[in-house]
Fold:
Amino acid sequence: MQEDLQELVNISRFYGQDKRYVIAGGGNTSMKTTDRIWIKASGSALSDITEDGFAKLDRGKLEKILKGEYAEDPFQREREIKDDLAEANFTTDRRPSVETSLHDLINYRFVVHLHPTQVNGLMCSNDAMDHVSKLFGKDASKPLSNCSLIILALLSNSMIALKPSSAAFLSRLMTRLISIPCL
Structure:
């Protein structure tokens, strides 16, 4: 287990030290076993993270969030979900990312979730759907609830469930994004 946690630290630093992939200390990384997940704690920077920069949570208790019924009021619902997240947290001195449940759902041992400047610029532009369709085809920009885009999971947060070799993929992606005139 210690070796896997060190691998998570190495992956995190690899991406966190490259300004093409992160804004400030942004993004999250995680590593899962059958019953536990380690995810970057809020306030930790990927660039210089250590093992102490990760929150450790119980995956069984996280399942409660997926199956739970929460208040209709978005503010009350957020409080309830945060309470359930806190209940699953073994490292009470470290606040896990609010995206912990998303990381838990992705069926890979390691997840790297980044916020590249170019991708954020694209997704925040007025013509985001048009540019996404041109880059990835019309199916990639079908609207979801709350004006989200399918491409958001692929692009905006660059969900890459690979080791540092995925840098080649991100590099190609960034090259394509840089060629978009509005950016």
